[in-house]
Amino acid sequence: MRLAGLLRPVRAFVIARPVSQGFAGKAGFALGLAILSIVVCAASSARAEDAAEVYAAGRYRFLSYGSVPTWTGTASGWRTDEPRIHLYDPVEYPGHAEFVSRGLGTGWTFRQFKQSVRDPDRRDHVPFFLYDLRQRPVSIGGRLHTWAVRIEDYEHEDSDEEMARTFSRLLEALSAEIGRATGRPARGLAVLARSPKVKPNERIAGALQRAGYPHLTLSQLIERAGGKRVEVLNPGTAVGTLRLARGERSGACFGPRDIAVFDRLPRRVPPVAGIITLVPQTPLSHVNLLARNRGTVNVSLGTLGDLPGAEELVGRLVRMECGPKKLLVQPIDRQRAEAYWKAHRPAAVVPPELDGSVRAIVDLRKSDARALSSRAVGAKAANYARILREWPGAVRPGFALPFWHYLQVVRSSGAAEQIRSLERDKQDLSPDQRGERLGAIRRAIRRARLHPATRSGLRRLFGRCFPSKRVRLRSSTNCEDLPDFNGAGLYVSKGFEIRHGDGELESKLLAVFASLWSREAFEEREFFGIPQAGVGMAVLINEAFRGEVANGVALTRSGERGTAVLVNAQPGDRSVANPAPGSVPESILVRPDGSQSLRSRSSFGRVFVADLEMQYVLLELVPLVIGAHGLLNQPAGAGEGRRYEVDVEFKVMREGPDLRLYVKQARLLGAVLPE
Q1: CB-based contacts of 486: which residues, under 8 Å, 6+ apart?
Q2: 336: closest CA among 344, 328, 326?
Q3: Is residue 353 part of a domain?
Q4: Which of 83, 139, 514, 603 has the CB geometry, 3.0–4.6 Å to 584, for a possible disulfide?
Q5: Is there a cis peptide before residue 200, judged by omega within 30 degrees of 0?
Q6: What is the C-alpha to C-alpha distance for residues 311 and 511, in angstroms, rounded to an integer?
Q7: Do 539 and 555 lie in a common domain?
Q8: Of 67, 524, 597, which is closest to residue 286 (Cα–Cα)?
Q9: Residue 81 — φ and ψ, nearest 5°?
């Protein structure tokens, strides 16, 4: 149903449109705003229809509190007989003061704006948030309410009586305007603070109720709206084409100018402008750690319809803004998108140069500094060596097969020449052609034969240190676990049973080598400007974990009061880093003062919660993680003057009657923390 005919008398319902929608420059915007005011009052059908459609179709809405479609609004001319209601674009005007200053042409500073709002005798504007409840109406006293409003708190100086009058007047103005827009009565709800330190608060609830307006607190509103259905795991801004994955798990068809929407948690996400999953994520999953490392917006939704306007924008170029209180998506023109991409291109990452001179298998407890460097054994093995030396009781013995062995394979197989050719031609190749070249490189590596020294050296190591045990062959490149390039989940690891023959050993090790040249890994490195011909694969070797009591990931968060630790854990071997669909971990935040806050319970059973024995393990884990944070942030890891978060993967094992905590790996995360 079209609504233009219902809006002939609408006088004070002004919708401020962004510059990009029809006017250019400050003069054009001012002219556009003036025209909007005139045509709404004078009943120009085209512009009146636009104003009606903003409310009817939800234009300029964003998602607040994970569930509620919301407009930012301001009432102006408050001391006149007919104050005017404005709903405006929150991207064009990021705050109420910005709109009053630029959108309404007052030119006020924030201080002037705040003074105008706080003092009831000088008040010219009333800033508010309008909540759209049409999809989930709230029933109170037998009446359905399709909207609610909250006056933004600017330290109002009103008495309770004055505050009640102000809120009642705003409710009446909104009721009239929304009623005219919809053609039916539209009495809404007041959203009041519970705390008496905030205005307006529940002390004025009785006065509003007598005027015919019931109230809710903000937490009650969120609960009535269906609870939090959206989680922003990595906030920020994304610009790209909104595209659906349509069931692909790898998402390999996406590029850096796409905002990818996955209907299930992807195994791997290539470099993209933004990530949306239609299933819950865990904050410390590989997907989110990659997003944090890249600076990529990452959001989980219940359905795409939970994000206002998103369903209509699939396939279009959009700008998505995500924060703790606001999530919105809007169309953007190509010129502005290109300018954004140019201004936000990531800085190139320079990995450690390969040192192919170290040939012997490296004992990470005893070898010299050159053999233990990331140039010889990769960043994962180098980090492992550092934490092994610091906490030998919490880290299993480890060894590294240095880069020399990988380099022998790529040279003897012909893959080295193919790699140089790809590096030379990559800019002229289509994505499919690059994929074909990468496939040929992987096949060449997997068909190769290990150098005899590699095979014999590994067999001696296994017989001496891992008799009758299963070992893990884990990637350790010079292009992962770096401060500015995490690479979580990029490369494969393989398990190996000592009793198996040389053929299987060769197959497993070559598969690890070949994973360096997967399409996903190549494109990730390309996104960060890493020279492809200079990358290499070493291998970290240690005993595999089997039959663990629990496992998890811990992430440090530094602040002025110290370092907090967020722990995500699951019972048994259920993965936290690569969770199954619907998997929810036990999540505990341990603050710098030692106090704990339970964020979520595991969907598979308790880990640390209400288990005294496991609480002792947690008490051991937290200082170890904080110690790893300090260790890896030393100049040898992060670079002097820079501070990073640290990601620690851990296992809890039952050894005899006791529980034993082990660190599986620790690495820096590339998001630099504020000093």
Answers
A1: 289, 290, 292, 293, 480, 647, 667, 668, 669, 670
A2: 344
A3: no
A4: 603
A5: yes
A6: 41
A7: no
A8: 524
A9: -70, -25
